[in-house]
Design brief:
By secondary structure, the protein is mainly alpha-helical. Helices cover 66% and strands 0% of the residues. The structure holds ligand LTSJ6FE6 and adenine. The site of adenine has 10 residues, from helix 1 and helix 15.
């Protein structure tokens, strides 16, 4: 595979990296690292996230090249996913090298790598793939048509001691986690987070904070469930989010004050929103790609 040096390819890669850096910059984020507070992640800080994001440039180059240079048709798109999966495993090594062993972006390597590859393919095939997020969703669904069967339904789940959080939650509760969200074409992002962000007003920080909280209403975040030890946490968190929006969200003093309290609560209960952060990264990627957020229009 030859890395593409076209302006378009470089723009796609820059947009992916920017999405990661925007996400970690948003504050105050409950349950997550931001420039002010590491939340329930004492082993991480914002500089580590910068190092982690920057270490992924080569991988993102490979994703774009794979998407642009794929010669199979729409029905062969599962092969495109198989092309980038080994690159994702190598990218995890780059990330762990950059963070000295801390898991900052494992989920994002998977999710954003898939979305970036699909976007590169979509842009190369305007005659067969519809434009916009709907077309992108279709490409992703086709790429991942075999994922659930391969990883979960037919996976080896006999020794629970060797299961990841996502695999364990599949066996115990039937949750499909990141794989289910990805295989469906990221519906939480496409159907909820992105349209919400597109109509939200305020500064970029306020719009992205509110979008993160909106994501919590829909996402089954396997990090949150793992840290809590009980899927009922999803319902509790959704009640907190409802209260946040009743108070006016991040554009009111009451909303911000509630958010600060949530931040403390997430720290006290050691609750992480790592999966939801990744869905915010994807939403930002699309928003930057489609011009829905622009840093020169950071108005209040
Ligand atoms: C398919 C892979 C993602 C592998 O999945 P795996 O089974 O290894 O992992 P999962 O437990 O399923 O979760 C992976 C990460 O996905 C993010 N995530 C969780 N829920 C969702 C969701 N609903 N939608 C989208 N994304 C979701 C999340 O990643 C983020 O959180 C991490 C940081 O949070 P933190 O709490 O600190 O997490 P820990 O490291 O666990 O720390 P402690 O709690 O212990 O302190 C960070 O990664 C964020 O990005 C989940 O963590 C993919 O990796 C893959 O394909 N790998 C290659 C290997 C392979 O092929 N495996 C398949 C078998 S054939
Ligand atoms: N800001 C953040 N904090 C913790 N985990 C994350 N995963 C992705 N972004 C994150």
């Amino acid at each position: 595979m030859t890395i593409s040096e076209t302006t378009h390819a470089r723009q796609l890669v820059s947009t992916a990296l920017a999405a990661m850096l925007y996400e970690v910059s948003v504050n105050p984020k409950p349950g997550l690292v931001d420039p002010v507070d590491a939340g329930p992640h004492p082993d991480m800080n914002v500089f580590m996230f910068i190092d982690s994001a920057v270490s992924l440039r080569r991988y993102f180059d490979e994703c774009v090249a794979a998407g642009e240079q794929f010669t199979g048709g729409l029905t062969a798109l599962p092969d495109l996913f198989q092309t980038i999966r080994p690159a994702g495993i190598e990218a995890e090594k780059d990330m762990f090298g950059a963070t000295h062993g801390v898991n900052t972006h494992k989920g994002a390597i998977f999710s954003l790598g898939i979305m970036l590859t699909a976007a590169a393919f979509q842009d190369r095939h305007p005659k067969v793939v519809p434009t916009g997020n709907a077309g992108l969703m279709q490409v992703i669904q086709k790429m991942l048509a075999a994922l659930i069967d391969h990883d979960l339904a037919n996976g080896d789940m006999h020794d629970v001691r060797n299961l990841t959080a996502g695999e364990y939650q599949y066996v115990k509760y039937g949750f499909l986690g990141i794989r289910g969200e990805a295989a469906a074409g990221f519906p939480v992002v496409m159907n909820h987070a992105y349209p919400f962000l597109a109509r939200r007003t305020g500064s970029i920080n306020e719009r992205l904070l509110d979008t993160l909280l909106h994501i919590l209403l829909y996402a089954d975040d396997s990090n949150l469930i793992k840290r809590s030890g009980n899927p009922d946490i999803l319902l509790r968190v959704r009640q907190w989010v409802t209260r946040f929006f009743e108070l006016g969200g991040s554009q009111t003093a009451e909303g911000v004050s509630f958010l600060q309290k949530l931040n403390q609560k997430f720290k006290q209960e050691n609750l992480s929103l790592g999966g939801s952060a990744d869905l915010l990264i994807l939403t930002i990627f699309l928003a930057l790609r489609n011009g829905i957020i622009r840093s020169d229009q950071n108005t209040n």
